[in-house]
Design goal:
With 314 residues, the chain is α/β, with parallel strands linked by helices. The protein has a domain of 208 residues: NAD(P)-binding Rossmann-like Domain (Rossmann fold, 3-Layer(aba) Sandwich). Helix content is 42%, strand content 14%. The strands form four sheets. Strands 2-1-3-4-5-10 form a six-stranded parallel sheet, with helices on both faces. Strands 6-9 form a two-stranded parallel sheet. The chain has a two-stranded parallel ribbon with strand order 7-12. Helix 6 crosses helix 8 and helix 6 crosses helix 10. It is globular. The chain starts with 8 loop residues before the first strand and ends with a helix. 47% of the residues are buried.
Amino acid sequence: MSYLKGKRIAVTGGAGFLGRHVVAQLKSRGVKEKDIQVPRSSRLDLRQWEDCTKVCQEADVIIHLAARVGGIGFNRRNPATLFYDNAIMGIQLMEAARQAKVSKYVAVATVCSYPKFTPVPFKEEDIWNGYPEETNAPYGIAKKNQFVQADTYRRQYGMNAVVLVPVNLYGPWDNFDLEDSHVIPALVRKMVEARRTKAPTVEFWGTGSATREFLYVEDAAEGIVLAVERYNSSEPVNLGTGKEIKILELAELVQKLTGYEGKIVWDPTKPDGQPRRCLDVSKARERFGFEARTPLEDGLRSTIAWFEDHFPGR
């Protein structure tokens, strides 16, 4: 709290899934609401230079969360949009922050930046050792620009720029639109709706053999704010749990927790995405004391309960 006290903090994407939890975390640590700026996309477009400068005008700290994101289907349909929008937002905003002499800039990147066949667990030092998994590559490479920019801006300008690499997030306020959603909200929505309609089967992409690691969004928000308070290096740092699960096992767990009694069907003609994802999370623990606290089953229960409350059956 000593670092945050009196700081004016701009949180791009602060009204979104992760952002609203980061804002809540800042408030819980004593940051006053008047000192938190949440630029809204309806008013400011971070693809425009002038709007980036407006965000930075009165900020001491920038937490850059704003991004165009989606699941495998969304990535396949919109590769150029994902590359351009995410690259231009990140590059321009960090430059605007430098020119405005913002005291600290924290960029939240993505696990999609890692090479397709990174040895498990993923270590930050391996992030440049290959091309990302093809369906995620445009988004992952766009976010990778922030690693280079943070490092070079620190070396040339002395800018205190930090980059965090979270694994797949989930939790309340996630995007449950089946056209664009990630795996957990897609599983939850399909299972709940199949239970409500008594559908005999529910279908999911791929074979279920790929593994993923999942971080509850409230834990991710805590990790980001801890980095704002305590971490001052441009070396990227993973945020995760260090535990992976097969998508097939995850689907079975969601099935149990939602009470769906039908059959899960896999479509192997659709891509699995990256074969495995599991992070080495030791650096976050060592550098700024972050450890995830929410077990996957507890987080899934909360996510399912939120969906049931906000998307009641007809």
